[in-house]
Amino acid sequence: MKKILIILFAIFFVSSLQAQNGKTIEDSHYKFSITFANKWTSRTTVETNKKDVITYSFDKDNGKLTLSLIAFKFTDARNLEDFIYTLEKDFNLNIPEKISGYTDIKGDGFSGKYADYKDAESHERIYYYATSKDSSGEYFCYMLRFIADIKSNLGEAEKEASSIADSFKIKL
């Protein structure tokens, strides 16, 4: 009887943790994983025909916070600053004016930075990552772009962005 109670408790505990942690996206082709709370839903996933870029789009349940995750695959290492400059200047991405300096992110086999951006409609926090380790002849760069409606609670949006960005793992 005692063993049954322990097993039931363990099942309940694991289920509870999974409900709190939400859904995890594992992408073995682009070598990353990321975890979302249950309040997030996947909107779209689009990959290029060459299978060298993939974009995931997610929305939080209230619709005032979105995330776009773009993963790039290269045959040689990319300079993080060049990668950031290229994305910030890309007219298709329409990234607003940067309102903060970059904050460095250190990790095993990659470097990263994030900064805040703002325009009349939204406040954004964008995380950039570039791998420095070779993964079977492949290198990766990533952009996690959190966009919060200008009317939303900025503190909550930054906390949510930080929590999800902390769950982002590069799997080389």
CATH topology: Protein Transport Mog1p, Chain A
Rg measurement, Å? 18 Å
Largest sheet: 8 strands, antiparallel
Helix and strand composition category: alpha+beta
Question: Superfamily at the CATH H level?
Answer: Mog1/PsbP, alpha/beta/alpha sandwich
Q: Please give the CATH architecture.
A: 3-Layer(aba) Sandwich
What is the name of the CATH class? Alpha Beta
| Structural domain tally | 1
Helicity level, as a percent range? 25-40%
Order of helices and strands: HEEEEEHEEEEEHE
Q: What is the averaged pLDDT score?
A: 86
Low-confidence stretches: 1-21
Q: How many strands appear in the DSSP assignment? A: 11
User: Given the C-alpha coordinates, what overall shape results?
Assistant: globular
Q: Give the percentage of residues in beta strands.
A: 35-45%
| Gap between N and C termini | 45 Å
The number of helices is 3
